[in-house]
Structure formats: structure tokens, C-alpha cells
Design a protein that fits this description.
By secondary structure, the chain is mostly helical. The radius of gyration is 23 Å and the shape is globular. Strands 1-2 form a two-stranded antiparallel ribbon. Strand 3 (about 340) and strand 4 form a beta hairpin. It has one domain (about 55-145, about 190-370). Helices cover about 75% and strands about 5% of the residues. The protein is built from 13 helices and 4 strands. Keywords: Membrane, Transmembrane, Transmembrane helix.
Length: about 375
């Protein structure tokens, strides 16, 4: 998590970082220096012009093609993708108590005694996600938005074209170089926010929870722990899920909505592209979708190991009746306190993940076949 927030602060993605509080003796959210926060606010404000453009353009296409279903999905995708960025801004300007609560718990919980994951592995995962998100941001800015990133002159020339779209400048009017640079920053940071939120912040948080949960359930099945100790740590596990959901459930809902609205119409189009680097990027997106669905579902699958523990050495006979009833109640599928949620109610289970993948594949296949045979859809 420290690597995650360090990268966010260094790229002006967020105005906070994770530092050590000598009073609390814990790592917690701390504000960046004032100049860094001012830069962060500036690029977030400038990116708003790109966000408006990203939403209004598919809206115009939709109004011109009301009889086709694809423009509706494109408009929904761009709306979800861009509007939810402001939730990310809110979380790190005014909602940091949710992040702090999660950070405090993963440092003080008794579940840490079961931790078997090396620190270097967690740092490696976080840096890897940052590298991937920056690569995808670079590629998306260059290929999709047509901004030349290989030279300063290329940035200025393509920045002027971008400025005409973002700042509503007529083609006949000359664009000042400064507006071209601002347009370049707006588009670049808009794309970066998409990728860092989806490819970095969301999976690293999910992976943190998954590693803690995996170590806990593997330990209670491998070692002879007392009944009271296991039940106490089981309550800690549920508290971990609650705090993780308070922090990242909206992020996960944002990701699921984005993935469904895009891949339901464009999945096979992106896989069939002939551009090598674009295809590589699409494969990375597809693997990322699989990982998020898998890791969320895996947490629920691990939670089912509590049943195995109850059967182990007939532990269920040694638990007070009321406590046993509460524990068995938690075994009901899709219980909110057992797994990560996408939004307020959708617990991401293996069944939910399978439904998402099936819908994306079937809808996209229908759209691709319809386009091939020129069927109105």
C-alpha cells in the first residue's frame, strides 16, 4: 500500500501519501507538501475539460444513431469511466478516513500473526501494477487520442489539435502554444486517472485482502489452534472485509460497470485488431478483468474453508450453540460480510464472476456477428 500511494503522490494523481505517524506508531494517510497538492489540484481541474469532451462526443454519436445499440453502450461506458474519477478525487481529498481505517486495521489486526507473504513480494506487485498502468496510459494516449509523445514538437502540434476539441476553438483560429500544452496535460492525466484507478488502486487493495485471507484460512486448517482463538480471528476477518468494502467497494463497482459496458460490445473487436501493440494492450486489459474477478471470488472461496474447520476434529461440537448459529449463518452464500462487494449489494462470488464473463462474451459475439452480416443492432 505504501508503494501504491507513493506512486500516486509522485505522479500528482492524489494529494496524499502513506507516512509513519510517530504519535500513533502506525503508517497512515498524510498530506503531501502544499506545492504538490496545488499541482495535483491543477491537473485534476485541467483533466475536467477532457472528461467533458469524452462524455459529450459519444452523446452526439448516440443522438445521431438512436436506432443502434452500440452507441448506448459507448455513451454509458464513457460516462461511467469519467464521472467515477471524481469519486477517486473525493476519496483522497475529503474521504481519507476510509483509507486510514483500512490501513490501521491491516497493521493492528491479530490476523497478522498468520502472515506468510514476504514484504518484497507485496512491493513487487505494487510496482508491477504501476508500471503496467503507466505503459497503458502512454499507449492509450498515443494510439487512441493521437497525441505524438515521441518529441516536443509532436506534443505541441498534436496538442493544438486536441486543444481545439477540448476548449471549443474553431479550426480557423490559431491555437496558442500554452493551450496546446494544457490540452496535452488534460488528455494525458484523464487517461492516467482511468488506468491508475482501474489497473493500480483497485487490484492492489484487493490483493492485500486476498493475501491476508489466504494466510488466515490456510493456517487454521494447518495448525491446531484453540476454538476461542479461531473464533476471535474469524471476527477479525469479518471486520477486515467490512473495512475493505468501505474503502474499495465503489472502486470495484466502477470497474465492473466499465468492463461490462465496454466488453459487451467491443470484446471481439479488440481481440481481432491487427495492430500488434494495441492487441497486447487489449490482452493486458482482459487478463486484468480475469484477475479482479478471480481474486474477488477467491476470497469467498477461502471463506468456505470455515466449514472445513468446523468439521475438523468435530470443532462444531465444542462451540457454544449461539456462536455456532451465527457462524453457520455467515456460511449462507453471498453474505456481505464474507466477500468483497461491487457497490452496496453485489458480492463478487464465482457465480457472479461467471455471469459477468458470459454476458460480455455473448453480447460482444452478437454485436460482432451482426456487424459482419450488416444486421441492424
Amino acid at each position: 500500500m505504501r508503494v501504491l500511494y507513493l506512486g500516486g503522490a509522485l505522479t500528482f494523481n492524489i494529494p496524499v501519501y502513506i507516512g509513519h505517524d510517530e504519535t500513533r506508531k502506525l503508517y497512515c494517510i498524510q498530506k503531501c507538501p502544499r506545492i504538490q497538492r496545488m499541482m495535483c489540484f491543477f491537473v485534476q481541474f485541467i483533466s475536467g475539460f477532457s472528461i467533458i469532451n469524452r462524455i459529450t462526443y459519444p452523446a452526439k454519436v448516440l443522438l445521431a444513431n438512436k436506432n443502434y445499440v452500440v452507441p448506448y453502450f459507448d455513451f454509458a461506458n464513457e460516462s461511467v469511466l469519467n464521472i467515477f474519477i471524481y469519486w477517486h478525487f473525493y476519496m483522497h481529498w475529503m474521504g481519507t478516513e476510509r483509507v486510514d481505517s483500512f490501513l490501521e486495521f491491516i497493521q493492528t489486526s491479530s490476523l497478522l500473526r498468520f502472515d506468510r507473504t514476504p514484504i518484497w513480494k507485496g512491493k513487487l506487485y505494487a510496482w508491477m501494477y504501476w508500471f503496467v498502468s503507466l505503459y497503458l496510459s502512454f499507449h492509450w494516449t498515443r494510439v487512441v487520442h493521437g497525441i505524438d509523445l515521441y518529441s516536443l514538437n509532436g506534443i505541441l502540434v498534436t496538442g493544438k489539435v486536441t486543444a481545439q476539441a477540448l476548449f471549443w476553438i474553431d479550426d480557423i483560429n490559431d491555437v496558442p502554444p500554452m493551450l496546446g500544452i494544457l490540452a496535452f496535460l488534460a488528455r494525458t492525466y484523464n487517461v492516467m486517472y482511468h488506468h491508475t484507478v482501474l489497473i493500480t488502486f483497485t487490484p492492489v487493495t484487493m490483493l492485500t485482502v486476498l493475501l491476508i485471507v489466504t494466510d488466515f484460512y490456510d493456517s487454521i486448517l494447518s495448525y491446531n489452534l484453540s476454538i476461542d482463538e479461531v473464533l476471535k480471528n474469524y471476527e477479525e476477518y469479518k471486520e477486515l472485509i467490512d473495512r475493505a468494502n468501505a474503502y474499495c467497494s465503489t472502486y470495484l463497482f466502477y470497474y465492473m460497470a466499465m468492463a461490462l459496458t465496454f466488453n459487451s460490445v467491443h470484446l471481439f473487436d479488440t481481440l481481432n485488431t491487427t495492430d500488434f501493440w494495441f492487441k497486447i494492450s487489449m490482452y493486458i486489459y482482459d487478463v486484468d478483468i480475469w484477475f479482479k474477478l478471480w481474486s474477488s471470488a477467491k476470497i469467498l472461496i477461502h471463506a468456505k474453508k470455515m466449514k472445513k474447520w468446523l468439521w475438523k476434529d468435530c470443532n462444531y461440537l465444542r462451540i457454544p450453540r449461539q456462536q455456532l448459529s451465527l457462524t453457520l449463518h455467515d456460511m449462507i452464500p453471498w453474505m456481505p460480510r464474507r466477500g468483497l462487494r461491487a457497490g452496496k449489494y453485489l458480492v463478487v462470488s464465482s457465480e457472479f464472476a461467471g455471469t459477468v464473463v458470459a454476458n460480455m462474451c455473448s453480447y460482444s459475439l452478437f454485436v460482432s456477428v451482426s456487424a459482419k452480416h450488416k444486421i441492424s443492432y
